[in-house]
Task: structure prediction
Amino acid sequence: MRLKALALAFGLLALQTAAQTTAAAAQDLHAYVGAGLRPPVDALIEDFRKETGITVTAEYGGSGQLLARFAETRTGDLFIPGTTFYTDKLKELDAVADLTVLVVHGPVLAVAPGKAEAIRSFADLAKPGVRVGLGDPQAMALGRTAEDILDKSGQGEAIRRNVTVRAATVKQLALYVLDGNVDAAIIGASEAAQNPGKLSVIAIPPDWYEAEYAPVAVLKTSATPDAAKRFADFLASDAGLATFQRFGFPPAPKM
Amino acid sequence: MGFTALLALPLAVVALTIAGVLGALLARLPLGDLWAALSAAETLFALRLSALTSVAALGIALALGLPAAYLMARRRFPGKVLLDTLLDVPLVMPPLVAGLGLLFLLGRNGPFPALGMELLFSPAGVVVALAFVSTAVVVRTATAAFRSVDRGYAVAAQSLGAAPWAVFWRVELPLAAKGIAAGAVLAWARALGEFGATLMVAGATRLKTETLPMAVFLNIATGETGIAVACALLLLAAALLMLVAMRLLGARRSERFSRGSAAGCGPA
Result:
């Protein structure tokens, strides 16, 4: 008798939990976000919650890592990588319901504090003894861009000999150069913008690389595509782009 | 009947989940692909680096850990309780946090920038990261092993005129050997699977600081599932070998006076 009552109570509890989860799911989005985009996206998630009541849970990591995670799980609502290269891959998986290009994700050469004298131009990276940090070419967006830049610089061979470390995310790389554990690294213009006065920045000729754009993709796997689209539109709105700009990501030219 | 059946269900859930994880890893690749991935240059590099760095780390862990453990087990001194807690910190510290701490300690802003620049981002840095984790395991397990040896043997040896180092080498160490060996296997397992600390201290540089766990991480990130799975299976094979070794160390009952099985498999 008591067992029956217990079973009934459990059944009711399970039903209630299920009901709650569906209610919550309608108001909770899961977004895969490239680690370098974290500061503006964190701020925008908070603004979006205040405005709409919809919470977005962001999973930050190297874009390639996130792509692998999605390919394996096939769940989630939004994908916001550091470059359209990864959303192109998503299109191959037929996973993109809607795509909006947001901001330019431009690379700069960042020089560690105290090394500005020794490294004044890109060519100085080839000097013997200089410690260069790069991203893994497949694991993170700017790792690929950096390879193109080295090829175009005409000194790829010599500079690659000076590469002492590769990082899995642009944030890890920024930490290495900020602490002076590498003398210079190719990181996002935004990383440099977020650490004003600490790093000296050397511009990279624009014809050395294909400009990378960070997009937002609404995934076909989304159970709540309307809410997901709302968040994507929010990021692409003037207010959203202004937030990105504040963190050093200029808006992409309107296609 | 009812009671046992009720308990059998959770047991079945646990066992089936583990079997499922193993099966899923094994079934991921067709045999031909697996062979190709296992013989890929990157896989072989990772295997060699993992073997070398984990053995080197174990050597450091034993050289530092055994004397430290003996002192902790056999001597009293002020502040010992505090020190005992401190020695356990690496066991409970997330490896990524340990790696971050090591990075700051060895970095250009740390106290030894010259030495740090030699170690950071190099295979030597991998050894440092692994040794940090596995030394704690050796200290913990060896302390328990020494404590489990009856002090009477040491006292008897002393009264027969043995010098302190002779007591350690010829009496205490052999008696605690089995527990120490079991601890060493555990420490090696920890070193072999270590990822978080390696990532921060040595970086994720392919074919330079790419240990087996790093190879799994990097190749999952780049969609090279083949190499990732091959490296995962190599780690799994090593882990199974270690389980067998632990069993053997725990199961041999040759010496009558140290009956403890694998001593002090602490919070590993």
